[in-house]
Specification:
With 204 residues, the chain is of the alpha/beta class. The protein is 26% helix and 36% strand. It is globular and about 50 Å long.
Amino acid sequence: MKSKNNSVWGIEDKATVDLLKNTKIGGSWLNLCAGDGRFNNYLLEQASEVVAVDIDEKALQKLAKTATNTLRKKLKPKVMDITQPLLFENDSFDWIFCTGALHLFPQSAFVKVVKEAERILKPRGQIIIDFATDIKRTYADGSLWIIENEPNYKLEEALIFLKELFKDYDLYITTDKVNPEKVKLADKEYTFTCNFILLRAVKK
């Protein structure tokens, strides 16, 4: 499942891997905020097509390079700002998949993204989201790297928010945590930990 080149976002978390292994993947997928594609090849192996969307063109170029020639034929990378209306017709996708991104959005922006996702998702289509909470980035000296304007949701408040937002869907939620992971990013090196929510929502 792993990409040929390591993702800057780390390895695939077990809970999401297990969910995908137990999901009958098929049809058209939108990989929203795809980045450099931790899970993208796994989707490509089974889906009829995967549209990978991100604002970072270089990340999408890396994502495409990690796919084999055969898989690349089913891949459609598109540079797009998901805070703007999504440039797809109504009822375009069977699945929408997003990991490692939407927890960075304030609630108002998150709601707009989900409303657009609902518009382009087919009836009985499904959304899979992982949503990080209680994020800590700890330097070796014990101090924390605090990112300005990052919402950093708490687990309980995020659960309430997500359940309300997806109240008109058939909703399945599990919670888990990320074990301490060493991260080196540009000039920063720290240990990352968080809780997270894994959500699967079926459009009625």
